[in-house]
Amino acid sequence: MLILALDTSSASGSLALLRDATILACRVSSVGEPYSASLLRETKELLDGACISFDQIDLFAVDAGPGSFTGLRVGLTTVKGWAEVWGRQVAAVSGLEALATQVSRAAGPGSLVAPVMDARRGQIFGGLFRWRNDDSGVLDRLGDEVVTSAEEFLQSLRPQLKGACGLLIACTEPEVIRSAMEGQDLGCCRIEVVSNVLAPFIGQLGYAKAVRGDVVDALHLDANYIRRSDAEMNWKGG
Q1: pLDDT at 13
Q2: Taking the domains of the chain in order of start, what are their residue ranges?
Q3: How far apart are CA 192 and CA 101, in angstroms?
Q4: Which of 15, 44, 86, 104 has the greatest CB tally within 10 Å of its CB?
Q5: Long-range interactions of 176-182: CB distance < 8 A, separation 24+
């Protein structure tokens, strides 16, 4: 299965081409250039470099959020168009899960992973996952992904820590969570810095979703913004 994966959720976007779970090529988006101007060009360059045409792609995998409202809209709209034109299915993947899946399992089966990313305005996006108690390498999500302050997020983890084997906090920018951890008794908890190049992990998670049949068509693809856009929050409809 050939998979084209993309992440436009943050300033450091990326594209990846995979065959099943094997990464064939990866490209990081140009810094400072908006996705609306660069995404199609960079996708063509990625596929041309691998001698792959669009009609050979079997599945599109996309970061569906959380993240930048504008960035996500560009990525999702682009994938909707591709899926419609080529009649392909789409795997909508959580960017937080793409962070979580990168961490080591040194704490053992059953250990917890809390991925976090900067949501601006003094808040973070966060989620909680647990490694399954087997050798499958699968993470199960515990509860909903949220947008909140770092302090409130850490407090919300306390009930889950009882009896847990350990907690790893996965992030690309440790400063968004480190100060909030000071003075908190979270037991065996540490930060693990992971890559912000998410497209390869989006592709691998997308492949796993496709194997399970957890895919959608262009019509049903939607974003997981968590936080409403500025326009919605400022609207004063009368």
Answers
A1: 93
A2: 2-94+197-234, 103-193
A3: 12
A4: 15
A5: 176/116, 176/117, 176/118, 176/124, 176/150, 177/116, 177/124, 177/150, 177/153, 179/150, 180/149, 180/150, 180/151, 180/153, 180/154, 181/154
Q: Report whether the peptide linkage leading into residue 66 is cis, meaning its omega lies within 30 degrees of zero.
A: yes
How much is the pLDDT for 137?
Answer: 72
Would you identify the CATH topology of the domain 2-94+197-234? Answer: Nucleotidyltransferase; domain 5 (3.30.420)
| CATH-assigned architecture of domain 103-193 | 2-Layer Sandwich (3.30)
The neighbour count for residue 163, using CB atoms within 10 Å, is 6
The series of mean pLDDT values per 10 residues for the chain, 238 residues long, is 96 94 94 84 96 97 95 95 97 97 74 94 95 80 95 91 81 94 79 96 97 96 76 45
Q: Do the domains at 2-94+197-234 and 103-193 have one common CATH topology?
A: yes
Query: What's the pLDDT score for residue 105?
Result: 65
Place of tokens 């089966």: 109
What pLDDT shows up at residue 107? 58
Q: Distance between CA atoms of 87 and 82, rounded to whole angstroms?
A: 8
pTM: 0.91
